[in-house]
Amino acid sequence: MTLTLLDELLLFSGATLLVALFIGRGLAAGWMVTILYGGQLLTLLKMAALGYGGGIIASSLSFTVMGQNLSWRFDALSWFFALITLGSALLSSWFACGAWERSYAKQGGNIWLFHLAMALNVLSMLILLASGDLLSLFIGWELVSWAGFLLMALAGGVATQAAMRYITYAMAGGMAIFGGLALVYSSSGSLQLDAVLIAVESMSTTKLWLLVILFGGGFGVKMGLLPFHLWQAPAYAETPGPGSAFLGAISSRMGLFAILLVLVKLFGIVNIDSLKIPFTLIDARDLLAWIAVFTIIFPTFTAMKQNDARHLLAWHGIGQGGYMLLGVVVADAMGGAGGLLHVFNHATYQAALFMAVTAVIHRTGTADLNKLGGLVVRMPLSFMVLLIGIIGLAGLPPMNGFVSKWLVYRSLLNEGMPLLFLAAVIGTLGTILSVYKLIHNIFLGQLRVEHEQVKEAPWSMMAPMLILAAIIFITGLFPGIPLAWVASVQEVVGLPATDYTLGGVESVSGSLDMIWVIGVLFAGFGIGAVIFYSAGRSKRVHQLDNYAGGHFLSADVRYQYSDNFYAGLMHLVGGWYRGSFLWLEKSVISLIDFLSLVMQGLYRRANAEFYLLSTALFVMAWVVI
Amino acid sequence: MNGALALTIALPLLGAFLLPVLMRVSVAFGVWIGPAILAYGCWILGDLWLTGSMQPFSVALGGFAPPLGINLYADTLALLFALAAQLLGLIFWPFKLDQDSARRQALMLLLVAASTGLALSGDLFNLYVFYELTAVATFGLVAASGTSAAYAATIRYLILSGIGSVLTLFGIALIYGQTGTLNLAHLAQLAPEQLSNELGLAAFLSLLIGIGVKAELFPVNTWVPEVYATASSRLSAFLAGLVSKLALLIILRLLLLVFHQPEAAQVILILGILGVVSGELAAWRAKEMRRMLAFSSIGQLGVLFIAMALPDGQGMLAVLALALHHLVIKSGLFMLADGWGGALQRLRGSAAASPLAAGLFVLFSLSLVGMPPLPGFWAKFTLITELAGQTEPLYLMGLTVFLLATVVEAAYLFRVAAIIYQSAPQERRPDEIPKAGGLSLATAGLFGAGLIATTLLIAPVGDRLQTIAAQAQDVDLYINTVFPATPGASQ
């Protein structure tokens, strides 16, 4: 038996897990695991033909249990997501090695468990991405859920509580998928993709609706789609730094992967489009699009309220997921490309942002946006990385986030969906405002006296951050590189493929060439620089000396406050923050609590014989009548 | 060799009556006699299982051919559960030596003999006798723990079980009055003409409620939380793990062979759904490990009843897989609960104190909520695919309830896991943290190892379960085995 490339990849990943498990307590274990991730990435790159539309690579691993065939294989879709997974795993793990690891262990963290959880997450994600039928998809799905639980819970305390909330949501989602699986099986008699594809054609509308709700809801839980989003931000934010970079980059995209595979590829956007909601003008597809849009808006504005940098970023992670789904649901060449490209772009800048914030925590010990400020001179490289990251997150040129968002907007306009477009723009507005809060409160404004001696983050942390920053810029300049992979993914899932060039897209309804855009932008910067430097000498003063503008104030006087940022805006939109989703969640829990009390009362009653006899009488009466 | 089957019941029975006397003569000899008998029983059954041709066979006791004489019926299903009874009897053997040990060991032998009899009996009256014997042995064993709570729980159980027995007897009387026979194979022949009427239904329902007391059927299961919380963990494990399944097996046999009314299945389905809802929800607020496990056991048995209600024995495979899975998991969990009694909040920090036990708890919980690729997932998968294939809306409701209950189950099980893995509170001395250890941990480890082995060997295990289920589903095979076409050829 010869090993296929996919076998090699999975074995490699399994070996990484074993290394983390058995020698993960030793010296330099982190570096060893990181190198192994690099090896996995190389194996994946050997399969690069997949990313350019090169067929399927199957795994030799397949077996039959209770009449069900289980198989695993990689295609362009899996390859694209696996690339992001392994890339973010490699860089997050690299980031964790060395300085961060030592300080984490010093604070009482279990670094062995951390590396183990990371390796487990990567392996389970690869298994999920390789799934060749719906049953292996479900197996992979559950593995990813529980592996994620381990990574989220390992910090203990608040993190464990957040992880508990996550796993309850994830179980609910998982069971919805499980139910959907059973329904699919009952009509197709098999869970193989081709059999399901045929069965979908003859399915009744009711059943299709039910399946769209079950699968959409189930997969949506992991994506953090409204109204199942409450778990995500605390769970990701409280994970130890590099872990949240990894989770924020890729974890919830597994939901999008599954949606692409099941709802888009198997059920088909056309079929979903034909599901009308009675007595209204909208259909299931519009419903998904509007859910996506609300997922953009609400979490983004919630992010603006956060005072913890990690929570702020995690809330954005939910909102950005909305853009991806929106693009995919619009489903024309540009929209699909935008949604899929955003998966890649989001992973790059989200990981960079989480890392930058973790670097700040590493040096200052806090992520509280009200207790930081002025670090730009102390940590200039981290500032640069964060700046590049937030430009990407806000979707502004010249970074990669602009390209994907532009594609999504363009497709909304092309397809005549102005309301959705407007809503998406409102979301972007919120993003820009809140990322400004992020960079301002950490790096700009007044430096705190206690941070005067803060140094730049160590190189073990800086290197992966700089690599990510470079990727963000380069894929912003040449979006054609990832767009090539995206186009093959579109073909695989049955969406129209986009017509891409190195600098962007070619289309009759509007082209984009980032090389030109960035060229013009940098020409502008150049002119600005010429004016700045020709204006004469500037005088350098100590940072703590330059706030007072001539007044005699010592540095320990706070005269620039970052507290209660956007007070005016919050006053304006405050009425919308009623916490209705929290209320919904609480009422479900109270309901279960109440029912549980009733049931316990039922079992606590002493007159058990009465139950027995009355049941007997009741059934007898039922028989006689 | 087939004749030796009767020994698996007779020897433990004999042992049970002789043990108190033998213990007086020689303690050293008396201590080993019980395990020796059970080990021999395991060997007989294991031998039958391995060397037999996998064809069912019937053993007529006392030389009278059925339906006049009584017979033991051994297909792979019955053998499997008989083997489980002997093996679990051995595993949960009350090794502790004190002045009560003779009585406790004798009762345990009695319980195993009765359980084996329940698995193997081929006629209704013997089933009833063994059923009563199980009840008597259980009362004795629960009360043996000696606390006043245990006595109170036993009394409640005794009364409930007594009324249940009367109902069972009433059902049997109805059947006998109608058909004049109690042999299951004979009944299977006569049933389509004589029992597919209201009388038959009434008989079945009184049997269902009567036997349901032991099978933790809602709403006659109110004894469960008290008894499991007060009896010794080993006994709770045996009761929740095995005895409830055997009671279930009787109902399943009756349903398959004798009562084909759709109403019968419907009642089981409704009661099963109510069992799942009540059990899992009650477990959500349970403040103590064993009580939580007891409620969860009620819920799991409810799931089994839902599976059993599938028409024409379609749920056979699901029932079998779920029952065996629950047997392993609950036994293991009760063993862990042995060292982890008391309020759940007390368990903070016990993962650091006993990491293996905590790991096993997580493993069992994961399998119980059905995480693939653990066996629990496959058991649940067989159930939901069958349920989703039904057109009757009540089955789909069963499916929905089952899935929702799993979410609740995961929430409360992992809440406990989170407590276990929390760091211990500062003010507590290390010796105050409950530790799971010794024999119970070893036993739980055994079940854990079995679970992992099954995970790895899931494909062959699945195939074997499918053949067992197919054989048990075959009504004609049952009749032909007990009444061979050419008389006298069976022995």
Instruction: Please tell me how large the radius of gyration of chain B is.
Output: 22 Å
Assembly of the depicted chains: heterodimer
Q: Termini of chain A, distance in Å?
A: 67 Å
State the share of residues found in helices of chain A, binned by percent. 55-70%
Largest sheet of chain B: 2 strands, antiparallel
Proportion in β-strands of chain A: under 5%
Global outline of chain B: globular
Please tally the β strands of chain B and state the result. Answer: 2
Largest interface: A-B, 55 and 69 residues
> What is the N-to-C order of secondary-structure elements of chain B (H for helix, E for strand)?
HHEEHHHHHHHHHHHHHHHHHH
Low-confidence parts of chain B, pLDDT < 50 over ≥5 residues?
486-491
The averaged pLDDT of chain B comes out at 83
Poorly predicted ranges of chain A = none
Could you say how many structural domains of chain B there are in total? 2
User: Order of strands across the widest beta sheet of chain A?
Assistant: 3-4-5
Please characterize this protein's 3D structure:
The complex is a heterodimer of chains A (625) and B (491). By secondary structure, chain A is mainly alpha-helical. Among the domains of chain A are: 279-501, no CATH class; 580-624. Chain A has 25 helices and five strands. Chain A has helices at 5-22, 29-46, 76-96, 99-106, 111-129, 134-153, 158-188, 193-201, 205-223, 232-238, 241-251, 253-267, 269-273, 284-305, 309-330, 333-364, 380-394, 400-414, 418-443, 459-477, 480-493, 514-534, 567-573, 580-604, 608-624, and strands spanning 57-65, 68-74, 500-501, 504-505, 512-513. In chain A, the strands form two sheets. Chain A has a three-stranded antiparallel sheet with strand order 3-4-5. A two-stranded antiparallel ribbon of chain A has the order 1-2. In chain A, helix 7 packs antiparallel against helix 9, helix 14 runs parallel beside helix 19 and helix 15 (309-330) runs parallel beside helix 18 (400-414). With 491 residues, chain B is mainly alpha-helical. Chain B folds into two domains: 1-121; 122-477, no CATH class. Helices cover 73% and strands 2% of the residues of chain B. Chain B has 20 helices and two strands. Chain B has helices spanning 7-25, 27-51, 76-91, 101-120, 124-143, 148-179, 184-194, 198-212, 224-230, 233-257, 262-284, 289-308, 316-337, 350-353, 355-368, 375-388, 393-421, 438-456, 458-473, 475-482; strands spanning 57-60, 71-74. A two-stranded antiparallel ribbon of chain B has the order 1-2. Chain B is globular. At the A-B interface, strand 1, helix 6, helix 7, helix 24 and helix 25 of A face helix 6, helix 8, helix 11, helix 16 and helix 17 of B.
